[in-house]
Amino acid sequence: MARVLFTHSYFYRFDPKQWRMKQPYPPLATILAAAVIRERGFDVRLFDTNLRESTNELREALETFGPQYLVVYDDGFNYLSKMCLTNMRDAALAMVAQARAAGCCVIVSGSDASDHADKYLAAGADYVIHGEGEATLTELLLAIEGNVATEGIQGIAFLKEGELRRNPSRPVMRDLDALPWPAWDLVDIEAYRTIWLRHHGYFSLNVATTRGCPFKCNWCAKPIYGNRYTSRSPAHVIREIRWLLDHARPDHFWMCDDILGLKPGWVEEFARMVDAAGLKFRYKIQSRADLLLEPRTVEALARSGAETVWIGAESGSQQVLDAMEKGITIAQIHEATRLLRSYNIRVAFFLQFGYLGETQSDIDATIRMVLDLMPDEVGISVSYPLPGTGFYEKVKHHMREKRNWTDSDDLAMMFQGTFQGDYYRKLHQYVHSVYRSRRGFRALKKLITNPLRFTEKDFRSGLGAFYFAVRSYALNKKLSNLKLPT
Fold first, then answer.
1. pLDDT for 468-481, tens place per residue?
2. For residue range 3-32, what is the model confidence (pLDDT) as tens digits?
3. Beta-carbon neighbour count of residue 428 at 10 Å?
4. CATH code for 3-166?
5. CB pairs under 8 A, 24+ apart, for 55-62?
6. What are the C-alpha distances in Å from 484 to residues 205, 285, 369, 422, 481?
7. Residue 70: exposed, middle, or buried by beta-carbon count in 10 A (0-12, 13-18, 19+)?
8. Which of 124, 297, 314, 331 maximizes the CB count within 10 A of its CB?
């Protein structure tokens, strides 16, 4: 059978913030697609760009493996790929051009390609897959190999006589248990382990238990799995986790679902099966405040090893949450935080500033919420309109020439917000500083009131208390100067 070289466009080194964090995860969707194609008899290899330094390294892989096909299959489970960063688009287009020059048939699948198929086809790609990719890629490769016409295949875009043609989307898969496990053997696991252990003292791997999200947050782009929600069975997930623990030996997992355990009873069954199998592992997830308040959910998460839960809190203003169509309340955020902590689960907040119509009082409410609840971690961004979202439709007529962030720390305002772009960048720095200052002073108080429980982490936080207090003061002064309506 033909040789297929799989790759993807996310280079951690091209995203300075992420590379500094040193938390790389293998391209899960990429190696799952490779496993599917391998089952159909194709000879597959992986050129994993995550830890590479240059797109030029692809040339050696093309020369040594000699593939008939290059498949640029981005990891749709990784939120970094969903950001559609221009550094990664440029990398993808460069690899497309190299493969085309080497005589490969080039197929691309990913969030950015789904939104901008014309750019990838113009760079030399033969086909762009939009939406969920495994079934489409399988049908496409088998058709090409069998000299069967491809024009009617669902879920592809291509050029015909110089014009873009986009076929109807393919229905999403319903039976995820029918898929093979990802082709972990194609990944250099030791390279990932070395980075994690050197910088964090433990090794984390990624696992996906679901696809899609049925909620209607109007800023959330879903070009791959859409609003449908499908789930693997707990038993299927447990078998993969057991295999990974035996063969890859991670200390920790990132369950990289948009929302883990939405299906009624899933989390409880998962916890029961973890107990029955005698497995011990730690993991982190993403969830919603309202779902965490469902009876027995948090207890089951704790019992199965959940260490950190990231909540899409977004804002401390109910007005902003309602405008986002988030479907949660401030009270639910507070209660979910309290409940998680009662089970010794770390709480982390995703926050978003700059949403259309957000006022200074809304911003102040978000900062108050953070300082009142003091989550264990915060991730801060600004509203980022991506094609296919209701938010994009609201602001597209006010968007500037720059339509995508360069990297994940770009944080440029793509539309006319309440304040100028520099204000939001300084706000990002200010919130981090005031949060870390508060954590530091809490650590110092702990040293005085409960010294026996004072940890090395508390010591590091305490050292930074005064520095971040001074920095917060200076940044607040700058914010006041920038607080001029656009």
1. 999 999 999 999 99
2. 999 999 999 999 999 999 999 999 999 999
3. 19
4. 3.40.50.280
5. 55/11, 55/91, 55/94, 55/95, 55/98, 56/98, 58/7, 58/95, 58/98, 58/99, 59/98, 59/102, 61/5, 61/7, 62/5, 62/98, 62/99, 62/102, 62/104
6. 45, 38, 24, 11, 7
7. buried
8. 314
